Amino acid sequence: MPAAQKKLGRRSDSSPGDKLRILVTGAAGFIGYHCVRAFAARGDQVLGIDNLNDYYDVALKEARLRDLEKTAPGFIFRKAEIADRSTLRAALDDHTFDIVVHLAAQAGVRASITNPHIYAESNLAGHLNILEYFRHHDSLVHFIYASSSSVYGANRKLPFSESDRVDDPVSLYAATKRADELMSEVYHRLYGMPLTGLRFFTVYGPWGRPDMAMWLFTDAIINRRPLTLNNHGRMRRDFTFVDDAVRAVAAIASGPPANPSRTPHVYNVGNNRSEDLRDLLSIIESNLGRKAEVIEGPLPAGDVPETHADLTWIKADYGYSPEITINVGVPRFLAWYKQYHGID
Questions:
Q1: Residue 268 in 3-state DSSP?
Q2: What is the dihedral of CA 20, 25, 28, 32, to 10 degrees?
Q3: What's the whole-model pTM score?
Q4: Catalytic residue positions?
Q5: How many Å apart are CA 257 and CA 49, to the nearest integer?
Q6: CATH class of the region 21-204+240-272+308-323
Q7: How far apart are CA 274 and CA 277, in angstroms?
Q8: Measured between alpha carbons, how far apart are the two ends of the chain, in Å?
Q9: What string of DSSP letters covers 168-217?
Q10: How many angstroms separate the CA atoms of 308 and 136, rounded?
Q11: Confidence (pLDDT) at 17
Q12: What would the pLDDT profile of 104-134 be if each residue is shown by its tens digit?
C-alpha cells in the first residue's frame, strides 16, 4: 500500500540548487497529499507521516497514498502518531530534513465540541512534540505549520488580517490552533527556529474532505438527500482551491522565512474573496444538472457566519495571488468526485 520505506539521502552541503529534503506530516490528508505530489514533482525528497485516524473514511486516505505511489517519485511513507514521542522518533530518527511542512492535526470545528480530548492530544501535544523534536535538528532551514482561519473567531472586522487580535475563539479547535501559533512563537524567540504558520481558509478541491460543505452538498444532491444550509443560508466563506493553497506552501517552503522580523510569523492563505454559500450551492446544482432539497438550520455552535482573507502580507513577501475562483474550482472538484465514485 504505502510506498516502500527507503532511507532519504543526506546532503553534506546546502547550495540553492540542491533538491530539498522535506517532511510532510499529515501526508495522507487532503492538503498533505497535494503537497507531497507537488514537492515530489519538482524532484524533492519527501518523507510523509500520518496516523491514518478514522475521523473520516480511512479508505479515502489509503486511496490518496496509493495514488502517491504512482504520482510522487521517491515518496516514502511511514505510519506514525505525532502525539506519541517514541513512535515519532522511530519514524524520523534515520533522516535529515531541510524543510518541515507540519500539516498533521485533528481537523473539524464541530467535532471539537463533542470529542475535545483528541484535539488536545493531536493539536497541542502533537504540535509540541514536533517543535521539540526539530529544535535539535541542526540542518533545518524552515518549519512551516498549518494554522487555520478559525483563529479569528468572533472577530467582526473583515477581511481578516494577520495583525488582527485573535483572542476570542469560538471553538476548541480554534483555541488549539491559536495555541499552536503561540507555542511556535515561543520556540522562535527562545531557540531562533525558522517558523511560519499558515492560516488556511476553507480549502477545497479533488481528494477533499468528506466533512466539508463542498463534499456534503455534492453527496446530498447526487444521492437525492436533503442538505442543510446553516445559519438559514446566511453564510459566507473564503473558498481556497487546493492548487492555490499548495502554491502558497511551495513558495514559502522554497527557503528560510522571507521576512523573519515580521510578527506574528503567520500568513493568511485564502482566495481574497468571500462567497455566499447559496452561490456555491447554485454552481454545484448547475454542474450536476439537479436541484438540491434544502433544509435551513441555525448557526452551529463553534461556527462563524463569514470568513474573508486579507492577503496583503503573503503577496508582499512571496508574490502570492490566488488564481482559481469557485466557478473554475468547483467543476474540477465535481469531475474528480464523480470519477472517484465511479459516477457517469
A1: strand
A2: -60
A3: 0.94
A4: 173
A5: 24
A6: alpha beta
A7: 9
A8: 27
A9: --SSHHHHHHHHHHHHHHHHHHHH---EEEEEE--EESTT--TTSHHHHH
A10: 37
A11: 56
A12: 999 888 888 888 999 999 999 999 999 999 9
